[in-house]
Amino acid sequence: MHLIKTGQQDKVETWVAQWEKKLSPLLGVRRARAYLLALEGKKREALALARTDLVYTSLGMHEEAIAYIKERIKDATDYPYLHLKNNPLFDPLRDHPEFQHILQDRKKVYDAVSTAAQDL
Fold it and tell me: pLDDT tens for residues 77-115?
């Protein structure tokens, strides 16, 4: 969603519309449309399509976004540290104490994997 951050939402809209025509049943397509609706402030429509971290964050529902992330983090492969740390779409959550805790936890996992990889 780099295009959205750079003010090119119209390009994203075109891309998602093309995706919907070709791949409409796919979850990723619904999530992309829900995210766009959330950015437009269309809460009911967005949440009807998908309830994800980015949808919640875009709607200002930070507690729900963090709860979603915490639930998904149970699978150690979800939410790698660098993704959480560097993705500007999580900027609205950066000052939240729970997000900071999640980031610290993911960094521990990242550091452990990095250390193990060095020993190979």
Answer: 678 899 899 988 899 999 999 999 999 999 998 898 888
**R_g (Cα) of the chain, nearest Å:** 16
List the domain range (segments joined by +) for residue 4.
1-50
DSSP 120: -
pLDDT at residue 56 in the model: 97
Q: Are 24 and 74 within one domain? A: no
Q: Are residues 42 and 67 in the same domain?
A: no
Residues 6+ apart with CB under 8 A from 118: none
**DSSP per residue, 38-101:** HHTT-HHHHHHH---HHHHHHTT-HHHHHHHHHHHTTSTTSS-HHHHHH-GGGGGGTT-HHHHH
Write down the pLDDT at residue 53. Answer: 93
77 vs 109: CA distance, rounded Å: 10
